[in-house]
From TrEMBL:
It comes from the Bacteria. InterPro entries: Asp_de-COase-like_dom_sf, MoPterin_dinucl-bd_dom, Mopterin_OxRdtase, Mopterin_OxRdtase_4Fe-4S_dom, Prok_molybdopt-oxidoreductase. The gene is nasC. Residues 48-104 form the 4Fe-4S Mo/W bis-MGD-type domain. Keywords: 4Fe-4S, Iron, Iron-sulfur, Metal-binding. The keyword Protein transport does not apply. Residues 1-39, 735-776 are annotated as: Disordered. It holds the Pfam family Molybdopterin. This is Assimilatory nitrate reductase catalytic subunit.
């Protein structure tokens, strides 16, 4: 062929060198480190391998490939055509790999004997010995329950299983809980009360089959971006969309009905919707008679919530309540999903129950396109609460107060029943116990309460009162800076394990590279501490695989049955939804088919719900509602995402969304004041929020921490904090509070590529919905 032959394959153009003066932020750093952009979906370096795994961030758990060079180093990412995400990744997923070899990584234990001292890098033996001596000193003087353990829902399920076992067997303490207490427990409580099982009822694929989709308290487009493909798929085949949220989020802007209700009024709204459904004969009485208990009491209760009454409580038109009832109740197949906007309340369990009641009353459960679910926040938000790191639960979702459940676990663990502690207290209650010196020592694993817990002043006071505090982490978090010992542990790509996503689909994460010298897995650290505490025979695990085999046995026969799930099956299938009682069982994608639940009688136990006002009262001094949430570029406490240049550039700082009626311009310094304190943020002026409500994203520490302002009131059943509503006021200020750089180990400076945009005083260039102001 000649060069002009039309059949000739054109030669590849030579790569264009990056001009450092015009390269996108961060590009040069990672190119110099050995990475080059993905090209036409194939490996383009000699010796490169693609390791199949999943994202480390939210509960969608998108499939991805980590790109590993010939030297065994992760340097890039490609989306994976997994059933969950089908080649899609969000901004966090695209940047997640950059934390693996990040210069901020901790690579040696840090230790100090007093908080007045500075951290010093020490050997593992010195750090472990000091920790064990402090555990023995505190427990010897004050009893086993004087030491606490807090885990995390971003850990693999194998590690969450070990957290519960380590706390109760090696430490012998009742005080074991985890940061999923701040996320999913209201939904868990409602699910257990209604259905006898705690998980979403339907797979994502059922969304594509529904005729009406209701999303309550979830900013899906920013918090779970890849999940939106299912929303759009349903819309493409004609499904109607209802969004219930005080903000007009990106998804709400596209909805058939956006209910911009006042924060803290969800259960009043859904009771009123059910009132209309009953009044207009839209209930499925045949289904209710065959499959439920408690329906008559629920029906009597919602009579007291006519649309006119609820409209006054919720601040929405009564006609809109009727419209939602007719749309949802009149659909042949309807689905409802909710997230933290419904759950983060002192009535979080009731809010979830009111949505369940609406679904059950219309017969929308247990069918393709008809069902109910909660959208998990953390990567292992579902799996993280299933196997024993929650204060009141043992592996397999067993109750720690049930004598038979206790007997079963003691037999598996090889301990006497008298050795198993009773139920402990919740994460926030543990902080109050620290203040009272009831808890004097603490180990934290994969959590950052100085940013994530409400009422920062109370949290700092509690942690300062600890006589000894150790943290496991791979970056130095704000909480870890307050500790006596910090153990450097692996990131997700340096170990293997499983997570359960929003659908309760158990997926396998694979190890892509060896950890840096001096770094250990969380599993190794817990097992080594247990050995030094004299319980090594109960923690003889070489790694995740051995832990998972014990987890399978410990869950067998429970509603959270993992026994039929193996690593080999997960790699073959791409994920299995529990319960899965045998290796021949296909898993359970859809619950409640045929109307049968996991209560002994097989019925749905409908629960009466009464609305009550939020715990922080409104007054003339505090007339507004402050609510909080996430933004697309960041994740939870931000300890990971605030270090990644591309994400910091996209969203460098928090802001306060205010309605134009308050008279501010975008960028104006606005002081937000609650009964816990005040902070100054740049205004983002937008019509996409209620006039009586302000919003602040919560990924940053003090002095720009939304959770320095939120109230530490708890739901009496789930013990979840009331993050989503507290009384506030706003006022003009002179100077915007500066965003601090993320903490780093002694002798290190914050990664420069993630600091340039952090000083930008302005909010994002556009609001989440309809903006009315411009950057000036």
């Amino acid at each position: 062929m000649t060069a002009t032959d039309p059949g000739q394959v054109p030669a590849r153009p030579a790569p264009i060198p990056l001009d450092p003066s015009i390269a996108p932020p961060g590009t040069r750093n990672f190119r110099d480190a050995g990475g080059i952009p993905a090209d036409q979906w194939h490996a383009d370096q000699n010796g490169e391998t693609l390791v199949p795994t999943h994202c480390c961030f939210c509960g969608v758990q998108c499939g991805m490939y980590l790109r590993v060079d010939a030297g065994g180093k992760v340097f890039g990412v490609e989306p994976r055509n997994h059933d969950i995400n089908r080649m899609r990744l969000c901004p966090k997923g695209l940047n997640a790999y950059q934390q693996v070899n990040h210069p901020d990584r901790l690579t040696a234990p840090l230790m100090r004997r007093s908080r007045e001292d500075t951290f010093q890098e020490v050997s593992w033996d010195e750090a472990l010995d000091f920790t064990v001596s402090e555990i023995r000193r505190i427990q010897g003087a004050h009893g086993n329950d004087a030491f606490g353990l807090l885990g995390g829902a971003s850990l693999y399920s194998e590690k969450t299983y070990l957290v519960g076992k380590f706390g109760r067997v090696a430490l012998g303490t009742r005080h074991v809980d985890y940061n999923g207490r701040l996320c999913m427990v209201s939904a868990a409580g409602a699910n257990k009360l209604s259905f006898g099982i705690d998980r979403a009822a339907n797979p994502f694929s059922d969304i594509l089959l529904t005729d009406c989709l209701l999303i309550a308290g979830s900013n899906v487009g920013e918090c779970f971006p890849v999940m939106t493909q299912y929303l759009w798929g349903a819309r493409d085949r004609g499904a109607s969309l209802i969004v219930v949220d005080p903000r007009e989020t990106a998804v709400a802007r596209t909805a058939d009905v956006h209910v911009a209700l006042k924060p803290g009024t969800d259960s009043a709204f859904f009771n009123a919707v059910l009132h209309v459904i009953v009044a207009e004969g839209l209930t499925d009485e045949t289904y209710l008679a065959a499959h439920t208990t408690g329906w008559q009491q629920v029906k009597e209760t919602v009579r007291d919530y006519p649309p006119e009454r609820a409209a006054g409580i919720c601040g929405v038109p009564a006609e809109q309540i009727v419209q939602v009832a007719r749309m949802f109740g009149g659909a042949a197949k309807a689905m409802a999903f909710h997230a933290r906007g419904v759950e983060h309340h002192s009535q979080g369990v009731e809010n979830c129950l009111s949505i369940i009641n609406m679904c059950v009353a219309t017969g929308n459960l247990g069918r393709p396109g008809a069902g109910y679910g909660t959208i998990t926040g953390q990567g292992n938000g579902q799996g993280g609460r299933e196997h024993g790191q929650k204060a009141d639960l043992l592996p397999g979702g067993r109750s720690i107060t049930n004598p038979e459940h206790r007997r079963q676990i003691c037999e598996i663990w090889g301990i006497d029943e008298s050795e198993l502690p009773p139920a402990g207290t919740s994460m926030m209650e543990m902080v109050w116990q620290m203040q009272r010196h009831e808890i004097r020592g603490l180990i934290g694993i994969c959590n950052n309460p100085f940013v994530s817990l409400p009422n920062y002043g109370a949290v700092k006071q509690g942690y300062d009162a600890l006589e000894f505090h150790a943290q496991f982490d791979f970056f130095l978090s704000e909480t870890a800076t307050n500790a006596h010992v910090v153990f450097p542990v692996t990131v997700w790509a340096e170990d293997e394990g499983v997570m359960a996503n929003t659908e309760a689909r158990v997926v396998k994460h694979n190890k892509a590279q060896e950890p840096p010298a001096g770094v250990r897995t969380d599993t190794w650290v817990m097992c080594e501490l247990a050995r030094r505490l004299g319980a090594g025979d109960k923690f003889d695990f070489a790694g995740s695989r051995e832990v998972f085999e014990e987890l399978r046995v410990a869950s067998a026969g429970t509603v959270n049955d993992y026994y039929g799930i193996t690593y080999e099956r997960l790699e073959e299938t791409g994920g299995i939804m529990w319960p899965c009682p045998s290796t021949e069982h296909p898993g359970t994608p859809r619950l409640f088919e045929g109307g049968r639940t996991y209560h002994p009688d097989g019925k749905i136990h409908m629960q009466v719900v009464e609305w009550h006002a939020p715990m922080d009262p409104y007054t003339e001094e505090y007339p507004l509602s402050l609510t909080t949430g996430r933004t697309v570029a960041h994740f939870l406490s931000g300890n990971q995402t605030r270090r990644l240049g591309g994400l910091v550039e996209q969203t460098p700082r928090p802001w306060v969304e205010v309605h134009p009626s308050h008279g501010y311009r975008t960028g104006d310094p606005v002081r937000v004041v609650t009964r816990r304190g005040s902070e100054v943020f740049p205004a983002l002026v937008t019509e996409a929020i209620r006039p009586d409500t302000v919003f602040i994203p919560y990924h940053w520490p003090v002095p720009t921490a939304a959770n320095a302002l939120t109230i530490d009131a708890l739901d009496p059943r789930s013990k979840i904090p009331e993050y989503k509503v507290c009384a506030a006021r706003i006022e003009p200020a002179e100077k915007i509070d500066e965003v601090p750089a993320p903490p780093t180990a002694p002798g290190h400076q914050a990664y420069p590529a993630a600091q340039v945009s952090r000083t930008d005083p302005l909010p994002p260039t556009s609001s989440q919905g309809r903006g009315t102001a411009e950057r000036s």
